[in-house]
Every structure is written in C-alpha cells, then in structure tokens.
Amino acid sequence: VRVECVVSDGYGIGESPLWDEKESSLLCVDITGRKVCRWNSVTKQVQAIAVDAPVSSVALRKSGDYVLTLGTRFAALQWKEQLVTTITHVDKDKPNNRFNDGKVDPAGRYFAGTMAEEIRPAVLERHQGSLYTLCSDLSVVKHFDQVDISNGLDWSLDHRTFFYIDSLSYSVDAFDYDLQTGKIGNRRSIYKLEKEESIPDGMCIDTEGKLWVACYDGGRVIRLDPETGKYLQRADL
Q1: 101 is catalytic
Q2: pLDDT tens digits, one per residue of 161-183
Q3: Pairwise CA distance, residues 224 & 167, whole Å
Q4: Is 148 flagged in the annotation as binding?
Q5: Candidate list 30, 101, 166, 201, residue with the active-site label
Q6: CA angle, corner 179, sides to 177 and 182, nearest 5?
C-alpha cells in the first residue's frame, strides 16, 4: 500500500473524501474554507468551487453531479455550471447549527447529522444536533435529536446494521437497519473509547466488515470488530 498526498495547500478542515468513478476523480470538502474540491487522477489537476456556507459532506447523484450538506441545507451541485441549488432546509429554529458528516446508504438515501457551530475544536453548545435522511423523493426524515457532534456513519456488509458516532459520547454505536424503509432502531454501544484515545470522528467499514475510526486530535485511526466489540489494531499517522 502506497500513501500519496495529492492535495495539501489551502485547506481549513478537509472532510468527506469521495471517489467519483465516472470522472476518475477524488472529491472532498473544506468546511471552514467553504469549498468543494475535485482532484482528477488523470490530469492531476485540482478544481474548487466556492459555496456560501460551511460545506461538510458531498455525495454522488444517480442523475449525475453531486449533493452537498451546506450549512443546514441539503443542496444540489452542478459541477460544470458551478451552480448550487437548495433542496431543503433542516434545523430552521437553530441558526447556530450546521451539518457535519454525511454518507449515502446502500439504497441511495443520504444520511447526515447536524451540530452547533464550535467555539473552538470540540467545544460547543451541547445537544443541539439531529440525524436526518434525505430520501430519493427529496423528503427528509428526522431520526433523533440531542446530538452533540454528528459524525462517522456506515453500514454493515449485509446492510442490516447502521453504525454511527456522536463524537462527544466517545462511543461507536450500532442500530438495526431496514434497507427497504431506511428505518433504524435498537441503538446500542459496540465500543467505548477512553479519553486518552481521543475523540471518535469519521468512520468507514472495510471488506472484512471491520470498522476504522479516525481519532480527532489523536493522530491515529483504530480498527474495531463490530461483532465482538474488540479493539483490533491502530495506525498512527
């Protein structure tokens, strides 16, 4: 495995890496820099589109182009036209909120959660966020509220379990998942981080069904077995 830095300059908070096979490109967002970036693996060039609010995640659209979580909006991005169109707002009663991490489920639903704007890293008004789903008919489902920092999301390889992190809980949680309806239930903690492990942030699942969790301000990612709740290994960065 070879790790290569492809983009390094001018990023405030880089998030939401996404591979676009059709464009042979890697996308990411800069939350505080308010831009969506795309690195072309063929030309090695980077393009960036500025947006009007903190942008925290990006996802592919079946019809082409992208969907964003932008401020407290789900929004569509037409790349060539550099046009952003609002799909819907959430948390309208909380002007200090913004979206954070987001990811698309195996059926094409866009899950994303909100949080209060930070005073400084990991310091914010508590319990202001919620977890939402943008469905294919552009309706929005609110799953729960009282979230501190909505973060890592992914699904088990059999699509029957949804994994989720609320960072300040220091817990990686699992839910039963119904792929047909997108409903979640039976929340439980599968791994609790110690304070010295730092704050759990982004998360993904590997081809063996194990979870990798990035530890904010910890300089590492850790690998967990969601079936047994066991800590397997760590990779220091």
Answers
A1: no
A2: 999 999 999 999 999 999 999 99
A3: 16
A4: no
A5: 201
A6: 75
